[in-house]
Hints:
Distance between the termini: 13 Å
Largest sheet: 6 strands, mixed
CATH topology: Collagenase (Catalytic Domain)
Number of strands: 6
Structural class: alpha/beta
Strand content: 5-15%
Shape: globular
CATH class: Alpha Beta
Helix content: 10-25%
Bound molecules: zinc ion
Number of domains: 1
Order of helices and strands: HEHEEHHEEEHHH
Number of helices: 7
Oligomer: single chain
CATH architecture: 3-Layer(aba) Sandwich
Amino acid sequence: MRGTKGFFLLILAVAVIFSLCSCTESSNSPTFSDGSEDFVNGSDFTTAMHGGTAKTLTGNCLIYNVFVNDAESEWTAKATESVLGMLEEAANFLERRFEESGSDGKLSVRFTDASNSAFLSFDEAAPTDASGMNWLGYAFSKTEHGTPNAYLKQCVKNVSDYDNVCFLFLFNKAGRSFATPYDSQYKDCEDYRYERAQIFFSTDRSFEYFCNPSVLAHELLHLFGAVDLYEPHVDTEDAAKVEELFPTELMRFEPTDIFQAEISSLTAYLIGWTKVLPNEYGFLFD
Ligand SMILES: [Zn+2]
C-alpha cells in the first residue's frame, strides 16, 4: 500500500491480507472540519473507529487479560506482576492524557489482575509477530471454544457494565506485539469483533521490541481506532512532515517512560476524544 490514500487501510502491516467486505455493521460517519469532507466520502477512508467491542476510548473501559502459555513459554507470578505493573502505567497515562485533552465525558481504564484474568495453555508455539495473526484462530479451532470470539465472549460475563472492552493475549516471550482491531470494511471483520492484541513480553532491552508501558498503550490505542504514524504506514515522502507534526506521538514513538509521549489531535479524533479532524492532516488522505 504505497499511496498516501491507502493510509487508513494500513491499520496493521498485515492488513493487506484482508479484502473488502459485506459486514453489516457500518461505522458512524466521522466529522471533518471545513474542506476535508471528501476524505471520508471516498472508498479509501476505512478505519477501526467505532466498531467492535472497543469503539472509543471513553467511558468505562475494561482490558481483559488472557495469559497464554505455549510450547516454548509460560507465565511466572513475577512476570505476570511485572506486565500488570506496566499495564497500570499505560492505563494511568491514557486517563491523564484524556483529562488533559479537555474532552467531554469521562474515561476510566480498568484491567483484570492476576486473580480475575484468564490463563490458557496451548501445546504448540505461537508465532512471535503479526505474520501469525491467524494463529489464535487455528489454536482455538482445536479447543471446545472453536473461535477466539466464542472464547472471549464468555470471558466477560458482565460486559454490559462497560462501555468498551478489549482483550490482550499475553505471551511471556520475546516478539513484536500487534493489534487486530475490528474494521467494518474488511471481509473477515467479524473474526475480530472481540478486539484484541497479542502482546509479547520481554524486558530485555537489547531486544528491539522489548515490552514497556508505551508498547502496551500503543497496541491498546489501535483497538480503539488509532493508526500507526511511522513508515511504511506513512509514505516516505510524508515522513518528514509526519515527524514535524507528531514528534512525540505514541503511535510513532514508544519511550520507556510513557509520560514522555503524547496523544496527538489526530489520534484523539480517531479514538473518539474529539469530534473534528484538523484540516492540517488532509495530506494523509490524498
Ligand atoms: Zn502500531
